[in-house]
Structures
1.
Amino acid sequence: MLKTHSCGQLRRTDIGSQVVLAGWVHRRRDHGGLIFIDLRDREGVVQIVFNPQKSPEPYQLADELRNEYVIRIWGEVVLRPEGTENPALPTGEIEVLVERMEILNKAETPPFYINKDVEVDENLRLEYRYLDLRRERMQRNIKARHLVVNFMREFLNNKGFLEIETPILIKSTPEGARDYLVPSRLYPGSFYALPQSPQQLKQLLMVAGFEKYYQIAKCFRDEDTRADRQPEFTQLDIEMSFVEEDDVMLLTEELLTRLVEGFFPDYKLKKPFPRIRYAEAMARYGSDKPDIRFGLEMSDLSDILVSSSFPVFSRSLANGGCIKGIALPGCGDYSRRSIDELTNLAKDSGGGGLVTISLDKTLNSIEDLTMSAVKSSAARYLAVDEVRLMAKRLGASGGDLILILAGDVSTVNRALGALRLEMGRRLELARPGELAFAFVVDFPLFNWNQELGRWESMHHPFTSPREEDLSLLVTTPEKVRGRHYDIVLNGYEIGGGSIRIHKGDLQREVFHILGYEDKEIDDLFGHLIKAFNYGAPPHGGIALGIDRLLMTLLGEETIRDVIAFPKNQNARDLLFGSPAPVKDEQLKELHLRLETS
RNA sequence: GGCCCCGUGGUGUAGCGGACUAACAUGCCACCCUGUCACGGUGGAGAUCAGGGGUUCAAAUCCCCUCGGGGUCGCCA
């Protein structure tokens, strides 16, 4: 080793030690007669001192030092002179008197600050990711990631799980996201696909008798990115045999609880994790991944407005839609402009025609409500009794703003849910430091795809239907509930899983409902069904999105800040410059020809 | 593919029709400085205001297009 100690670890107890340190010049303070350098390595920063009287040669060399130079120094750890201690630094009681120095490597001036936490254009950060990662925040994030993943491994190892790797080159699956494809050199015209998740593989491991499996699994989905989504991401993938929903959920709950309490003790979290039925989540929060850190819950107002003369309302109800609202506390004095903003927000999510009702501040009791205390874009269509009933249901009082949307159920839920989230943010309703985990349960197994005119799996086709709903499979698929559970955290879906189908004939039946012919089923999923026919145990599992979990735990706003080398929004890697063209020979070997446009 | 937002010295920002010969902070370079720790002081270099076109007597500023980036809808079994 080129060093005997880490910079950041030196303490009072090291006083008197001769040490060799190596690291980066974090900051330099040249006093003319005396040069101080903050020397940084992975463990932190220590002050080293160049004194011309004591060591003239290194002092002269130190004149050349600039930020991010890599140096090695020999010296003695000494107590700092009284009054010059720096309590802000863990190493602030001591310093190292340099007796000899070697410059291991020079550095160009970095394109952005490494020793300061300043917002920098993300392009630039990604182009120079190796420098970005030197910054304190990124070091913290990547280290936290290690600790979290390490904890997960230990936790599961101690519970008898086996970590098993599964292939990255597998087969394209018809349902789900777009696959990343890898052309085969040996088989012209054939392709591998990168796994969207090791779903089928882990089920096969259950058939293979491993009973408890986990993996830190890279997953790939070729879809557009978001703040919490990029082409490749990491899941803690878990599968267990001979289990029911509660076994998996309680294990997950224990894992997450102990993780947070052990590594992020400043957070408050509610135990046990609440369980919310899907239908309820949609009705109350307009989302299957509700942020339950705050209220602003939606209520159905259809019955109150059933005979409303307002065309938007009556039309929606006539078309089988609904009318729902939320109440925004203290927003009754919103300007026209602010209200327009909300209207646009609703439109962005597909919800047209936001109706707002401002209740005057001076209104003491909803019972005393008169139309003079009501300001609304739809005022002339609203009866005072209707407003009163709506206000009551929504828990609104004087000074509040009521938002109402009408339309088909899913659009209203989505748009009003988006408004709820945005207003929750703006009004800062979520208490800081709160982690609101919740399980969402009782999902329907299928949903009807209007465009394609067929049933689709709500999650994936391997989810088991509930036993008591089996008879509905053929008659009324929409009523079949799946044995699926999602886990959400502060409005993010951080995981999901289910008890799987473990019998070949049931699996085949589900594929039939999804519109597959036997031939296709055999081609695409024959391996799985065949495996089920050789004594597959009942099994189930879950997958946790490690990036999203970390993002929330670390208070970051994008998944990219917890990934060492992320892709940008356009799925490009700005450091490597990928994706990139390849040589013609490579294409030829792969039997590929580019379309010339 | 749609919508919204952003692009000004290395970095972060200000300026939003004329007083801009583009300001501030920091970084960078030189010199001074022996107890600083975001050291301090003096001086200096550094910007075709993302690119192109237009409107105007006059454009960093207004309009259009392109490029790059971010957010979001669609998409994400």
Note: Chain A has three domains: 7-105, 129-268+538-597, 294-429.
2.
Amino acid sequence: MRPEDMRNPSMLTGDVEVVVRELAVLNEAKTPPYVLEDGVEASDVLRLKYRYLDLRRPSLQRNIILRHKAAGSVRRYLDSHGFIDVETPVLTKSTPEGARDYLVPSRVFPGKCYALPQSPQLFKQLLMVSGFDRYYQIVKCFRDEDLRADRQPEFTQIDIEMSFVEMDDILNITETMIVNLFRETIGVNLPVPFRRMTYEEAMEDYGTDRPDTRFGMKLKDISDIVAGSDFRVFASTLAEGGVVKAFAVKAPHGFSRKDLDSFSDVVADFGAKGVLWARLEGDGWKSSLSKFLQASRFDAMGQRLDMKPGDIALIIAAPKNTANASLSALRLHVAGRLGLIDPNAFSALWVTDFPLLEWSEEDKRLVSVHHPFTAPMPDDLPLLPSDPGKVRSQAYDMVINGSEVGGGSIRIHTPEIQKQVFEAIGLGEEEARIKFGFLLDALQYGAPPHGGIAFGLDRLTMILTHAASIRDVIAFPKTQKAYCVMTDAPSEVSPAQLAELGLKYGKEG
RNA sequence: GGGGGCGUAGUUAAGAUCGGUUAUAACGCCGGCCUGUCACGCCGGAGGUCGCGAGUUCAAGUCUCGUCGCUCCCGCCA
């Protein structure tokens, strides 16, 4: 035992005295390229190059272990509820609609390619036709799109599908799965049932389909209040079918004129031209709009936004989508600045009733909001030929802390409706047959009503560990350009390998 | 495809507004000293393509342009 006066309570091992009987060096170690301690930051390139060392950091160890526990919790839950883990192909067929595919050229079929799956979507539906009425898989998915802090080119889904179910069945069973997950991994009991919100409500109140409900500042439409005013920005916006929306920030916020001006920069990325403001003071309104708006209109706005003296309203006039996107971003920005988000709070909810289709300006046609196998709401089906944009789908997302952690839908299970939807997105019968013939065939053999959902294991783990980057919950992640610093992938291959595949790259690469 | 931030010893940072002698510090590394250390201490030392390339200038880490890498965001991600 170490002498009493030499205990060091500030160290984890400060009470321990080691008595050496024998000492052997098992392997010598070089000096690490950087300090491997939490709190000591190194550049991302360096960390990724020596990922095997970086993973020694206590925080990363903790994240990776927690991820393992999360996957285990999900497996135990699904196993005990009769779900069967079935593997699906990784070398599969490229599908139109959706993300860019990662392609794998075939040696045996020169000029043809496999694609890595964006998700096992079609296979899990086919498993329902096969009679495996409860399927799950924790599986890699691949999407060749530009990355973000919560997106990697390969990521892991908790993929689930069930037969003879309706939306509520899937929501209920997976909600319990997530509640279990939080309890078993971090000891947090999420309040149940999760709040449910329609897509329309989410857009109206939060300007986004993945609202962060850990704080207030809901959006309000004040178009009717400012309609008919002299202010040209409002008049022209409303005349062109746009909206004027706002949210109120409670005092004390301490916003200076400079702060208020800076908000226009925040929303610029989302297309809004600027942010207007109006502060309620003891004796009236102070505002960038005072010259243009009568006091009665200010009062009506204050009432709608439930404002007290000192509170300030932030206002945007723009086309509806622009106003929503801008206010949603501004709301998050303001909440972050004012510290309104409790880092230890978790707010989980369901968003339902997504639209089935939306207009794509790029493709000049309607495209699926979720995917083309999503079932329309039966009540809305008659609208499909006449007013397809109005048709709601049986799709749903789970949102936690403003992050979309899962999404799914009840699927189309009859060939007739599937054909109608393909038609609506401009997928001709012949083309549909070439691309999805196997699905259309399968639906003709008594496919049961079915539906499912997929959760992002990476994002769930981020939330559980409070990780700021998806790279902190993946053992061997890639950079924002999908490059692996450690292995140097992607890399050049030999001319012989290319020749075998019948490939030849041009000079540009 | 577009916008923002960052890039200086092995590492993390300062120096950049205002161009000017030999680019500074901490940690790490190397050598020496120290018979109770635990963020040991003391003495000494090595270590730099200031991401890269042009340009302006008598002179560039510093100014200009381009480019590469990392990162955050928009578009994109059924």
Note: Residues 135 and 303 of chain A are 51 Å apart (CA to CA).
